[in-house]
Write a structure and sequence with these properties.
Length: 288
């Protein structure tokens, strides 16, 4: 009877030790996990499909778990990376600036599109329009994209025209909608990303203004992330090579126009800081 009790007691101790070890391992893994944030630029299912290959690649490169945490809107995405609720995030240029101002987030890398690590916004009119300059758009109608796309309005202001000077302006959502609306004559002019503007030059549009070269979408990291992990992340993103078929699939899943990632710095975003000052006073010129 005594031997039986001792056996049960030893077994209980062994089970307790095993549970304790498993709990430590679980907590260590949880502490070691990185959360990858992004606003849901597409529906969540599509956004997961776009980001999952990159997430899996980072897990392999960093030898630690990486999980996706999509935000319902850009405001939440900015707040989460600024507060450190997520470790890294895929952000627009303006979103990065706001997150940097709020939480000193750090840049990891910037995207490369069609061989360029920058982009331009362009104001377009119909190819047969008599309008040659932005100043001539005063009193005319204008098509913007997303109402939240601050940089589009900032570009028009930088070109020398206030939105109040248009006879009418509307937010049509996607660039395709803008291009079609101008070609069809629904609006006198509109604003497009460079790749779209150049594509529609052959379909009836003419470019009358080009913004300065602007830094693109980026990967940013929480200020809470340690330097070792930050450097490992940078190396992982910069190592993605379109000549490698596996890497090509990862890059194109995120965006078909992307060619990879390039080094970047906070100072590169000063051009956008200066452009959006009239619309967003919270962003100032401060470097890491």
């Amino acid at each position: 009877m005594i031997n039986s009790c001792l056996y049960v007691h030893k077994r209980m101790i062994l089970i307790s030790v095993l549970i304790f070890i498993l709990l430590i391992a679980y907590n260590t893994e949880a502490d070691n996990e990185l959360e990858f944030g992004s606003v849901a630029m597409d529906i969540p299912a599509v956004m997961h499909k776009r980001l999952n290959p990159l997430t899996r690649y980072l897990e392999t490169s960093l030898s630690r778990k990486v999980s996706l945490k999509l935000s319902p809107n850009m405001g939440v995405a900015i707040r989460e990376i600024a507060l450190g609720s997520v470790d890294i995030a895929y952000l627009t240029p303006v979103a990065y600036l706001k997150a940097h101002e709020q939480g000193r987030v750090k840049l990891v890398a910037k995207t490369v599109t069609n061989g360029k690590a920058s982009f331009q916004l362009m104001i377009v009119v119909r190819a047969d329009s008599a309008i040659k300059s932005v100043a001539e758009l005063a009193g005319k109608s204008f098509a913007f994209g997303d109402k939240r796309a601050l940089l589009q309005r900032a570009t028009v202001t930088a070109a020398g025209l206030q939105t109040e000077q248009f006879s009418e302006y509307r937010f049509l959502g996607h660039y395709d909608n803008i291009a079609r609306a101008v070609v069809n004559g629904d609006f006198t002019a509109g604003i497009l990303k460079d790749t779209m503007a150049l594509k529609w030059q052959e379909k009836g549009l003419r470019i009358i203004y080009r913004s300065p070269q602007l830094p693109p979408y980026n990967i940013a990291a929480s200020s809470k992330l340690d330097d070792k992990t930050l450097n490992a992340l940078r190396q992982a993103f910069l190592a993605l090579d379109v000549r490698n078929p596996d890497h090509l699939a990862i890059i194109k899943a995120l965006d078909k126009k992307y060619d990879g990632f390039a080094p970047t710095s906070d100072a590169e975003y000063d051009v956008i800081r200066n452009m959006i000052k009239p619309f967003y006073s919270g962003v100032s010129v401060k470097h890491e």
